[in-house]
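Observation: inputs received (chain + flavin-adenine dinucleotide).
Thought: call the complex predictor directly.
Action: predict_structure
Action Input:
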Amino acid sequence: MVKKVDAIVIGAGVIGCATAFELAKKGYKTLNVDKLPAAGFGSTSNSCAIVRAHYSTWDGVAMAYENFFYWKDWENYLGVKDELGFSRYMDVGTILLKTKGHDFRKVLRLYDEIGVLYEEWDLETLRERMPIYSHGSFYPPKRPEDDAFWEKPRDTLDGAVYTPESGYVNDPQLATHNLMRAAEAQGGEFLYNTEVVEIRRADGQVVGVTLNGGEQIDAPIVVNVAGPHSFVINRMADVEAGMNIKTRALRHEVHHVPSPEGFDFEQSGAHTSDGDTSIYFRPETGNTILVGSEDPECDPRIWVEDPDHFNRELTQAQWQAQVYRLALRIPDLRVPNRPRGLVDLYDVSDDWLPIYDKSDLRGFYMAIGTSGNQFKNAPGVGHLMAELIDACEGGQDHDRDPVQVKCQYTGLTLNAGFYSRLREINPESSFSVNG
Ligand SMILES: Cc1cc2nc3c(=O)[nH]c(=O)nc-3n(C[C@H](O)[C@H](O)[C@H](O)COP(=O)(O)OP(=O)(O)OC[C@H]3O[C@@H](n4cnc5c(N)ncnc54)[C@H](O)[C@@H]3O)c2cc1C
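Observation:
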């Protein structure tokens, strides 16, 4: 039996579900297909789900700031009940340390242009607000194997930038389930435990997909939102040759460490971006600190050829690198012997900025290359993708005349052409998880 829908979305992660919700609201009959058993079980499930505004470009900051308001307005935005309840936005704020490791002056300029609220803190204020932080500057980031890692800092930080309108989402998988329920309420369907194995084409137009059981589903629109499998799907559709920017899967470890004795980081901590030691960290339940890497040059980058098979075990070497860096910033940290945390894949583009675009195959679109930093933007990306798909299906030549997307909360206008697959590598990018 051949089934027919208006749009097949490959993937039911946070961005796939948001795209389906926004397309369904426009009247498209959508079907998300995911090979895993439920919504948000792919890389979304291990997301740190940090919501922060510091990005290296105007477009990056504007998109992230817009999305902060979706999370604040979550239940209202979804407009449905979910029997599992709603994910919660945790309003902890972001401390961006002023160091050579971040171009904080550029960030402040962009905050001023866009209207992001911030406070500049001197070291005295940083001490009052976060008494457990050391103010030493350890730049450039090093690995613990390097003797210089253990040298006393010769310099201090320049202070910090605090943005109150940032935090994290407590349960990224539940947020994705919420989006799935919202899409279903608009008529969207979801098919799980089912793998797309072929993208069917005819005369330069996508016509549907084939599933692993052999079943075919027809649709004039197919959207690749396959996360770290994005390049696999693009190869199935044979669209990579028409892309200037491509994607690859990168292995990433996140570690969990207990808060230092006498300080409740879960209650009183903030998300902190420490470009000085090249880590980011935030509060986590159980009075724990969750710490990830900002991808310094001294760390190996583990590119994964087959996203179905990679080392899911934490490694002692990366645990020590990230947790010892955290101990430089929080000297009272107690570092356990046994690593705790998780491993997953980023879907990284050549310039660490996403690709939200059409392709050279008519009807085939992609929301990929999220480079470890687009959970926060999922609802706004869903909106952007629905606007882009609707405009292209309506005949707009997006490559020549890029779709402009009006933001629902901030009223800013985003140029969807920023995310083009045809762009040159964007030299403004941080070329790291910071985007
Ligand atoms: C460790 C980690 C930490 C992160 N921290 C943050 C953060 O703090 N803040 C932030 O904003 N972002 C963060 N991110 C990034 C963010 O989580 C991702 O950008 C986002 O979750 C991607 O969502 P997605 O829907 O595109 O992909 P996914 O959630 O990976 O979903 C893709 C889905 O496609 C399915 N699929 C793939 N191939 C097929 C196929 N052939 N057939 C059927 N289904 C298929 C998969 O099963 C999967 O469920 C982090 C990512 C990781 C890995």
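Thought: report the result.
Final Answer: The first helix runs from residue 14 to 25. Residues 10-16, 33-36, 41-44, 46-50, 195-196, 225-229, 252, 254, 344-346, 370, 372-376 surround flavin-adenine dinucleotide (CB under 6 Å).
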